[in-house]
Amino acid sequence: MTQRITVIRGDGIGPDIVDATIQVLEKLGCDFAYDYADAGLMALENHGELLPQETLDLIAKNKVTLKGPLTTPVGEGFTSINVSLRKQFNLYANVRPVRSFKGTKARYEDIDIITIRENTEGMYSGLGQVVSPDGSEAEAMSKITRKGAEQIVRFAYELARREGRKKVTAVHKANILKSTSGLFLKVAREIGEQYPDIESAEMIVDNTCMQLVMNPHQFDVMVTTNLFGDILSDLCAGLVGGLGMAPGANIGQDCAIFEAVHGSAPDIAGKNLANPTSVMLAAAQMLDYLEMGDKAEKLRNALREVIETGDRTTRDLGGSHGTTEFTQAVLDRV
């Protein structure tokens, strides 16, 4: 039976890099059927809202979505589209792997780290945001539940076991945030005891940032709360060459969205300059999710060979070529 994929091309460079990725998926012989949907600025122009009901219906129907970068307009009255999608479909696990590719401008070699971020709770979820009438005070609420913590920590250990990983590090700030981060750490310790085959570690978030810069090779899988995970996953992307090398998956019980994690870069939109690696790697995550691991590895290996050899790479990778030339280099190897 043909798998239907909801495709959100996105804003800015989104259409360029998503279309390039669809070409590669077609060349791989994935036999997908694609249903295109609008979100972001394109949706605002075409439908008068950032996230139309038709788009939500398609995501719910197909269960699997490939998404380019979206722009949420700056200003009051606009809620983050990504946060809205995560809440709407309870996409509780954000999975951000980073791996070193030779040929990038990265400072390190042999990096292989997965950040598992709780995606629906914590400070980043935006609960209770209030600004006083005179603008002199602002507050927001952080809420952690035992259910949410158990769900994300168990997800991390199950992923580690499934992928043959050796270590899970719970990242927290329980020394100061004794209630919220304290509950997360308590649950992480309890869950860790149920996986004796995997080494369990814990680290305060500020020390984690320092250790990632000084000795990133000590990390394997990290699991943490929403805001910390948002920051740490970007730091990890910096270890392997930047956000252009970092994909992301948002996974729930029966629905998943795979995305480029960088912005929409409107300044280079339509100029054939964008590096499509992030969304191509997100597509590889999607293939893994759909139990098409052989095709996922073909895609990753093709990307690795193109970047390592410098064959038709984009400017951010030290080359002088555009999106179409880079994509053709990947297609030639697939």
From TrEMBL:
One example GO MF annotation: magnesium ion binding
Oxidoreductase listed as a keyword: yes
PROSITE patterns in alphabetical order: IDH_IMDH (PS00470)
Domain of life: Bacteria
Location of the Isopropylmalate dehydrogenase-like domain: 4-330
InterPro entries: IsoCit/isopropylmalate_DH_CS (IPR019818), IsoPropMal-DH-like_dom (IPR024084)
Biological process annotations from GO: isocitrate metabolic process; tricarboxylic acid cycle
UniProt entry keywords in alphabetical sequence: Oxidoreductase
PANTHER family xrefs: DECARBOXYLATING DEHYDROGENASES-ISOCITRATE, ISOPROPYLMALATE, TARTRATE (PTHR11835), ISOCITRATE DEHYDROGENASE [NAD] SUBUNIT ALPHA, MITOCHONDRIAL (PTHR11835:SF34)
Homology family: Belongs to the isocitrate and isopropylmalate dehydrogenases family.
Name of the protein: Isocitrate dehydrogenase
Biological source species: Planctobacterium marinum
